[in-house]
Design brief:
Shape: globular
CATH superfamily of one domain: ACT domain
Function: Converts the prephenate produced from the shikimate-chorismate pathway into phenylalanine.
Structural class: alpha+beta
Strand content: 25-35%
Bound molecules: prephenic acid
GO molecular function, one term: arogenate dehydratase activity
Number of helices: 12
GO biological process, one term: L-phenylalanine biosynthetic process
InterPro entries: ACT-like_dom_sf, ACT_dom, Preph_deHydtase, Preph_deHydtase_CS
CATH topology of one domain: Alpha-Beta Plaits
Helix content: 25-40%
Catalytic activity: L-arogenate + H(+) = L-phenylalanine + CO2 + H2O
Radius of gyration: 25 Å
C-alpha cells in the first residue's frame, strides 16, 4: 500500500493555517486560526460522525471513519465565532495601545517604525521589495501547483474530479465537505472541487446548503463519468460477503446491479468510496466489500470482484469548482450561471421567475429547492378554516447563459424585482467534454 497524503480535518486545517504565515494569511487570520484550534479541541468526539452528504450516512456504517470533529457542530461553530471576534477585539486593543507590529501612536496618529538606515555600511539591511503585477495575480498559487481541496481520501471520485478540473494540481483530501469550503476560505487551498449532483443518485443536498452558508464563488464545473467496482481483500469471494459499504450516492447508483448479482447483504453508508476501501484494508475485513474506483483498489491493495457495477453506463457526477473570487464572465464560449433565490411570500413567485428566463430564450439546466432554514414555515391564518402551514424554500437555478450577456442581466434584473433574496453563485464555462459512457458489468 502506498503512503498517502494525510486527510485534512478541521483541527489540522486550523493548525496549518496558524503555523503557515507563508500561505498568504494575515496576522488576523493566523490569530483566528489559533483560537479555532482550541475550539476544535474542545469539541473533539471520536467515533461520532459530523459529516454526511446525506442523512443515510448517519447509519451505523458512518461511524467507521474515526477521528472526526463530532458532536454539536453548531456549538463548535458558535464558539468559533465568539472566539474569532475576541481575536479581532484583542487585536484592535493591541493596535490602540501601539504594542503590535511596531506601530505607535503620536497625538492619536499612528506612526510606522521605519527600517533604520545604516550609514557607511557595505551590507545594507535588505529593504522590502515593492509589490509588482505578478504579486497581484488573481489565482494565488503555492509553488507551481494550484492546491485543490476535495472531500474524501485518495482514490475518491472527487480526487479524480479535482485532477480533471485542474490537471497537475496538488489535491488536498478533506474529511468533510465543510472543511473543503473552509480550506479555501482560510487560504489553505486555492480551490475546492465538490460534487453537486449525480445522474442516477440526484442532488448532493449538503453542498447546496453549504454554497449558501459560505461565500465562495462557482468558477467552473466538471462532469465525471463514474465507473464503480466491487472491491474486497485478495482471496475473498462473493459468497463470503455479509455487507457492502460505500458512500450513500455510490450505494444508490449500484442498487439494482447488486441485487441482480445476488448480493442481498447489508448495505452501509460511509463518508466516501475510497474511505470504504481503506477501512476494509486497514481492518482486514474478509466479510465486507466496498464500492469504489479501480484506483482505490490499487491504492489499498484490494482485488476487483466486479467491474462496472453502476446501474447505468452513463453514470455521471457533476462537480463545481469553487474559489474565493468570481471569474469574469465571457461570451466566446458556452457559459452557465447558477443563482439562488427566495421570496417571503412563498412559492407563488416561481412561475414569474421562470418566465423571466423563458421570454428571453434562456434554457434552465437545473432547478432544486431546499428548506429555507432561517424561516422554514409560513403560517397563513383563515378564521373560517384554520391555519395553513406552508413550507418555505430556497430555489437554486442553473441557466445556460453568461452574466456578460445582456439577456441574462435583464432576466436577473427582473428576477430581483420578484424576489426578496437573490444571489449569483457564479457564472462559469460549461463542461463541454465529448461524451464517453463507461461500460457496465452486464455489457
Ligand atoms: O466518495 C467518493 O468517492 C466521492 O467522491 C463522493 C461522491 C459523491 O458525493 O457523490 C462523488 C462521486 C460519486 O457520485 C460518488 C460519491
Amino acid at each position: 500500500m502506498q503512503s498517502l497524503t494525510p486527510l485534512v480535518d478541521l483541527k489540522s486545517l486550523f493548525r496549518t493555517a496558524a503555523a503557515s504565515p507563508g500561505l498568504g494569511l494575515t496576522p488576523h487570520r493566523v490569530g483566528q486560526a489559533r483560537y479555532l484550534i482550541q475550539c476544535v479541541s474542545r469539541f473533539d468526539a471520536p467515533n461520532v460522525n459530523a459529516n454526511s452528504s446525506s442523512s443515510a450516512a448517519q447509519t451505523s456504517g458512518s461511524n467507521l471513519a474515526s477521528g472526526h470533529v463530532g458532536r454539536a457542530r453548531h456549538e463548535w461553530q458558535s464558539a468559533c465565532a465568539i472566539l474569532a471576534s475576541k481575536v479581532v477585539s484583542q487585536q484592535q486593543d493591541t493596535e490602540k495601545s501601539g504594542g503590535a507590529d511596531g506601530v505607535a501612536a503620536v497625538n492619536g496618529h499612528p506612526t510606522l517604525d521605519l527600517v533604520p538606515v545604516k550609514e557607511h555600511s557595505n551590507s545594507p539591511t535588505p529593504l522590502p521589495k515593492p509589490l509588482s503585477i505578478a504579486d497581484l495575480s488573481p489565482a494565488p498559487m503555492h509553488g507551481s501547483h494550484l492546491r485543490v481541496a476535495y472531500q474524501g481520501v485518495p482514490g475518491a471520485y472527487s480526487e479524480a474530479a479535482a485532477g480533471k478540473a485542474y490537471p497537475n494540481c496538488e489535491a488536498i483530501p478533506c474529511d468533510q465537505f465543510e472543511v473543503a469550503f473552509q480550506a479555501v476560505e482560510l487560504w489553505i487551498a486555492d480551490r475546492a472541487v465538490l460534487p453537486v449532483e449525480n445522474s442516477l443518485g440526484g442532488s448532493i443536498h449538503r453542498n447546496y446548503d453549504l454554497l449558501l452558508r459560505h461565500r465562495l464563488h462557482i468558477v467552473g464545473e466538471v462532469q465525471l463519468p463514474v465507473h464503480h467496482c466491487l472491491l474486497a481483500l485478495p482471496g475473498v469471494r462473493k459468497e463470503y460477503l455479509t455487507r457492502v459499504i460505500s458512500h450513500p450516492q455510490a450505494l444508490s447508483q449500484c442498487e439494482h446491479t447488486l441485487t441482480k448479482m445476488g448480493l442481498n447483504v447489508a448495505r452501509e453508508a460511509v463518508d466516501d468510496t475510497a474511505g470504504a476501501a481503506e477501512y476494509i484494508a486497514t481492518n482486514n475485513l474478509r466479510d465486507t466489500a466496498a464500492i469504489a474506483s479501480a484506483r482505490a483498489a490499487e491504492l489499498y491493495g484490494l482485488q476487483i470482484l466486479a467491474d462496472g457495477i453502476q446501474d447505468d453506463s452513463g453514470n455521471v457526477t457533476r462537480f463545481v469548482m469553487l474559489a474565493r473570487e468570481p471569474i469574469i464572465p465571457r461570451t466566446d464560449r458556452p457559459f452557465k450561471t447558477s443563482i439562488v433565490f427566495a421570496h417571503d411570500k412563498g412559492t407563488s413567485v416561481l412561475f414569474k421567475v421562470l418566465s423571466a428566463f423563458a421570454f428571453r430564450n434562456i434554457s434552465l439546466t437545473k432547478i432544486e429547492s431546499r428548506p429555507h432554514r432561517n424561516r422554514p414555515i409560513r403560517l397563513v391564518d383563515d378564521a373560517n378554516v384554520g391555519t395553513a402551514k406552508h413550507f418555505e424554500y430556497m430555489f437554486y437555478v442553473d441557466f445556460e447563459a453568461s452574466m456578460a450577456e445582456v439577456r441574462a442581466q435583464n432576466a436577473l434584473a427582473e428576477v430581483q424585482e420578484f424576489t426578496s433574496f437573490l444571489r449569483v453563485l457564479g457564472s462559469y464555462p460549461m463542461d463541454m467534454t465529448p461524451w464517453a459512457p463507461s461500460s457496465t458489468a452486464g455489457d
